[in-house]
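Entry for copper (II) ion complex. Fields follow.
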Amino acid sequence: MQRKSKTLFTRRDFVRSSGLIAAAWAAPRAFASAAANALPPATLDPSTLARFVDPLPIPKTAQPGGTRPSPVDASLKLRYYRLAMGEFESRVHRDLPPARQWGFQGGSPGPTIETRSGEGLLVEWANELPRRHLFAVDHNLHGAGRDKPEVRAVVHLHGAKVPPESDGYPENWFVPGKSALCYYPNRQQAAMLWYHDHTMGINRLNIYAGLLGAYILRDETEDALGLPRGDREIPLVLCDREFTPEGQLSYEVSPDPDAPWIPEFYGNATLVNGKLFPYLDVQAGLYRFRLLNGSNARFFDLSLSSGQSISQIGTDQGLLPAPVPAKRILLAPGERADLAIDFRGHGGEQIVLNDDESKEVMQFRVVRGPSSDRLSLPPQLRPITGIPESAAVGTRTLTLNEYDDPKGNSMLMLLGGAYWHMPVTENPTLDTVEIWSLINLTEDVHPIHLHLVRFQILDRRPFDRFAYFATGELRYMRAPLPPDPTEAGWKDTVRALPHLVTRIIARFEGYPGRYVWHCHILEHEDNEMMRPYEVLPRSATVGVASHATDAHQL
Ligand SMILES: [Cu+2]
């Protein structure tokens, strides 16, 4: 047992170590959040556990239960899956008793849904959860009032271009005994998406309980590259967790039992595909790892103990133009990284995947002997054409705000200064291009995710925050910084760094209707850092971007 430690990697360390304008926020607010005042729960110290005694589990591939007519063309039959959310018990470590969790089909991560670009499918998400939550619901949060059932669920497929009625709108939750049928057209490029709960006001608790899984889309362009497949392609779903000394999941609460919400959850244990400190036996060859950060708030900074380079070959929305060699892989909540690791020349070695340089996450055991592996990474992957800024019909200027109580505790976060319930202000027209300029007025990195669309990061630029507060004028301090090469592909989640304006550009293609955009720190998302947005049909062009400033103003 140990008292709660906050010594692990925080988002602020992440900013400092990411090398991006290191001195720009020289006076960080003391992070005396409510979390720091919270009652220290009895917590398992993972350093007391044996390392690398459990093999890495590989989530099963979801199996369809027949076919059903397509909702858009009844003559077309689509694969139909039924995935049930329920409670189950599973050991996260050999030496711990089974932990009560929530998952899909009795697992967390749930089964991996595998499909191909253009091959639509149907999933019936069935809520078979118990009627009491595993964790304390904060009824003060919007949408989680005492008038709402304690256990509710709705599933969103993160990164998918889907009609609005299948997007898992946070208010479209359903209770145990009910289900929702969602249609995923999959008209998009190969990428690893992920499905997870998105319920208004309790999303952080539902995902933390285990309601998430991977969704892998493939296409011919990817096939032609000859990347590692089968047992050489491994999903790694990383989740920041904390356990009681009895091996049960624990989620920290504030000292106020009537308001248990905390501004961010940081645990001390990293689950990889549901296990603590797993190991994976590998050949001395080339592997592909599909990483997902499914944590509530933890940012990962991953590296290999062998010091070898990792090739990042893809990001949230698919392949990069070319492999990017990197010693460190940075991953915010919600982000994915497609990695290639070459174990040739490492026969007989035990290589540890570390977070934050020395925090052990998992181990690769490379078999002895030479490899007959002839696989190699192609020098070019998938060409990406930049969306020119001139294609944008306008720029939306959107602030990221945090509000503290008199003691300096973060109490509320807003996008564009607006609450969830306020009228829609972001209303792009279908098939138009817009630039969204995210002005981060906080001390935190916020991973901002837009539903429906993929986007490109244009740049990040330091600005004078004091001048902005005083006059509302954006006064830039330095030249814009281009995205890191590992981010220079299609994204759906962008790290909006503190005291910077982060600009993204997107074509709002797909479907008209109501979607959301939000911070992917789940505690922020649950406390108002989420807004609805509406894609207007092409005919409804009146008032488009009425909220936007001219594209050339910035
Ligand atoms: Cu946030």
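NOTE: Helices lie at 11-17, 34-37, 203-209, 220-223, 465-471, 522-526.
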